[in-house]
Each structure stands twice: as structure tokens, then as C-alpha cells.
Amino acid sequence: MTTRRPAPFGRALCAMITPFTESGALDVDGAQRLADRLVADGCDGLVLSGTTGESPTTSDEEKAQLVRAVREAVGGRAAIVAGVGTADTRHSVELALAAEKAGADGLLAVTPYYSRPPQDAVEAHFREIADSCGLPLALYDIPGRTGTRIEPATMIRLARHPRIVAVKDCAYDLLGTQKVLAETELAYYTGCDEYVLALYAIGGAGYVGTVANVVPSRFRAILDAFDAGNTDEAARLQRLTVPLTELMMASGLPGTVTAKALLGRLGLPSGPVRAPLRPAGPEVTDGLLAAYEALAGAD
């Protein structure tokens, strides 16, 4: 069996959507009900105000309010990781301090986007966030969205910081990931639902999943099977999730849009997306529901 490195926020994390009311306001009650369901169905942690949580279009106060509300709902049953990444280092530090005050257990910070800073500036950005408060920090490497990679050599240097403890890996560079795993104790969480088993099998800590908003127990089962030594079953369970994952994450629509569409059809807290995102149409939602039902009925 693979020796498991520490998983600071648990193994099975959901990149939780941010529910809104039909008028577009933050749905605090809905967020609490969804968070409670996710934890009851196997999530060790919840990542709030990330990509799936529509962080670019929620206010600073809404982000803090969301942390407070979810903390009240889940208590100590799950870790709460607050997304604080922005294109502005100073703003990210302000969000980190606010998240700590609101009761978060950890922080998630994406590489600064649009300005495309060089690697020394990327490193300085993350160090400043990590130095700003007492919470552990996960680095969010998603160059397809930000335009800037956190290069493996930069990761290795940042791993020496005592509060930089984890990575949410959306770089699609398994070789680079293995280089960092070999040189550091960073806990690697895949942010790509199709890589849950692949990364876990080479020493990753777990996942931060978007599809987990609708089928949290299905992804948790992959890790449980692997930990029990049943690798064939883990592989089978991963393959079962592929049709729904493909529709939700590779159909040309953002995962936020597809997750909210499916949650809404299931009668679970979701609400509209905020512009510039637009809701999924009925045909897309019908397809998502069919894939969900097929997965729910699989054994």
C-alpha cells in the first residue's frame, strides 16, 4: 500500500457551489443545508468561494458570511477551506484575514491572473498571503484559467514555508506533480474529477471535486476502496463516474453552471448563476439528470 502523507483538510473535499436566492442574493439557509448534506454524504472538507463557488462575482462580505454560515452548519465535522485568491496580493491578504476571523480552517489561493507575473513574483505573492495570518494555505495551480503556472521548482521552494501545506492541482501535468511529490511533503489534491484515483494512487492526499456537489459519496467510495486494498474496485468506481464528469466538466459549460443546473433539478439548494455566467438550458439539464440517474442506479 502507498504510504499516505498527512492530509491537512481531509481526503474527500467538495468545491461547493454558492447557493443564491432567485433574486440573486446569497442564500445562507441554502448554503447551510447543502453543506450539511455534503458532509453527511462523506465530505471531509468544503472549499468555499473557489472557482465553482463563483468567487469572482461574490463580495468580500458575502465570502465571510458564507464561511460563518457553513461553520455554524457543520461545526467541527468538516474542514472549511476559504478561497482567497485574487489578482491583487493586497486584496488576497485582506480576504485571508477575514476568512480567519470568520472561522475558516484553511485558505486556498489561486495564482494571480491576467497580469501574468513571473515566477519570482508568484512566489512572493503566496508567501505574503501565508505570512498574513495563522491559517494553513493551499496553492491553487490552474494555468488554464489564470494564464500562469506555478512551476514545480516554485512549488518546491514554497513548500519550505511552514504554513504552505497543500496544492489543488489542475495543471494537467502528472510528471510535474510527481516531481513535487518526490521532493516535498505537500498534500496534493486533484481539482480534476477524472484524476481522483490517478493522483491518489501515486501519493496524493485526495480531491477537491466539483462533481462531488451532486454525488459526494460516489467519489468518497473510490478512495475508500483504494485504501482497503481493492484497487480493481477503485478503478471500476472511478470509471462509473466518467459519463457524469464528462457532461459536467467537459461539455463546454463551466462546472458551476452544470452543478447548479443539476442540483436545482434535484430540488437541492442552488439558485441562479451570476453574470457573466448564464444558466444551462433544459436540454443540457435533462442530459445531466439522465447521467446522474444512471450513476445513482449503478452498483
Automatic annotation (TrEMBL):
Active-site residues, record numbering mapped to chain: 140 (proton donor/acceptor), 168 (schiff-base intermediate with substrate)
BP terms from Gene Ontology: diaminopimelate biosynthetic process; lysine biosynthetic process via diaminopimelate
Localization in the cell: Cytoplasm
Molecular function GO labels: 4-hydroxy-tetrahydrodipicolinate synthase activity
Binding positions for pyruvate per the UniProt entry: 52, 208
Catalysed reactions, as listed in the record: L-aspartate 4-semialdehyde + pyruvate = (2S,4S)-4-hydroxy-2,3,4,5-tetrahydrodipicolinate + H2O + H(+)
EC top class named in words: lyase
Site feature location: Part of a proton relay during catalysis: 51, 114
Primary localization class, coarse: cytoplasm
Keywords of the record: Amino-acid biosynthesis, Cytoplasm, Diaminopimelate biosynthesis, Lyase, Lysine biosynthesis, Schiff base
PROSITE patterns: DHDPS_1, DHDPS_2
Protein's pathway: Amino-acid biosynthesis; L-lysine biosynthesis via DAP pathway; (S)-tetrahydrodipicolinate from L-aspartate: step 3/4
Entry EC number(s): 4.3.3.7
A GO CC annotation given for this chain: cytosol
Pfam families for the chain: DHDPS (PF00701)
InterPro entries documented for this protein: Aldolase_TIM (IPR013785), DapA (IPR005263), DapA-like (IPR002220), Schiff_base-form_aldolases_AS (IPR020625), Schiff_base-form_aldolases_CS (IPR020624)
Family of this protein: Belongs to the DapA family.
PANTHER family according to UniProt: 4-HYDROXY-2-OXOGLUTARATE ALDOLASE, MITOCHONDRIAL (PTHR12128:SF66), DIHYDRODIPICOLINATE SYNTHASE (PTHR12128)
Subunit structure: Homotetramer; dimer of dimers.
Function: Catalyzes the condensation of (S)-aspartate-beta-semialdehyde [(S)-ASA] and pyruvate to 4-hydroxy-tetrahydrodipicolinate (HTPA).
The protein's name in its UniProt record: 4-hydroxy-tetrahydrodipicolinate synthase
Organism name: Streptomyces poonensis
Gene, per the UniProt record: dapA1
